[in-house]
Automatic annotation (TrEMBL):
SUPFAM superfamilies: PUA domain-like
InterPro entries per UniProt: ASCH_domain, DUF984, PUA-like_sf
Species lineage: Bacteria, Pseudomonadati, Pseudomonadota, Alphaproteobacteria, Rhodobacterales
Organism: Jannaschia helgolandensis
Protein name, UniProt field: Uncharacterized protein YhfF
Record domain ASCH: where: 18-135
Length: 142
């Protein structure tokens, strides 16, 4: 029996909801990597967090990643959060993101993403989060 998003949030009132990526295609691609266990880390421009933005991830908090259509996809638990600048990103963290061939590929893909979602600079701050999947809400998975 699948649960509704409201039932999941009612049972986990501290949980935030979010979507990976900024398009349906990217969201679907990233969720497939998360479900396969290939993607265990993510990052976002730090400017997206704070009083007028998203809540900063906290170790131990469980959040719900949504399908592009708003249906619950997976619950993840944050296991580590750090901040670094664009110029400080390293190959080890990039590999944990599961989407990129190497650090140069990450830079090639993420720079345009940051540019279209608020701006990019060499010294911009980036929130880096490691997570684990707690529950998969896809039919027949948990």
């Amino acid at each position: 029996m699948s649960r509704t998003l409201q039932e999941i949030i009612d049972a986990n009132p501290e949980a935030e909801t979010f979507r990976f990526g900024d398009s349906k295609a990217l969201c679907d691609e990233i969720l497939a990597l998360v479900r396969a266990g290939t993607k265990t880390a993510t990052c976002e421009a730090a400017r997206h967090y704070g009083p007028k933005g998203d809540t900063w991830p906290e170790v131990g908090r469980q959040d719900v990643a949504l399908e592009w259509d708003g249906m619950p996809a997976v619950m993840i638990e944050t296991v580590e959060v750090s901040t670094r600048r664009w110029s400080e990103m390293d190959a080890e963290f990039v590999a944990a993101q599961g989407e990129f061939r190497d650090l140069d590929h990450w830079r090639e893909v993420y720079r345009p993403y940051f540019e279209r979602t608020g701006g990019w600079s060499e010294d911009m701050k980036i929130m880096c989060e490691r997570f684990r999947v707690v529950e998969d809400y896809a039919e027949g998975k948990s």
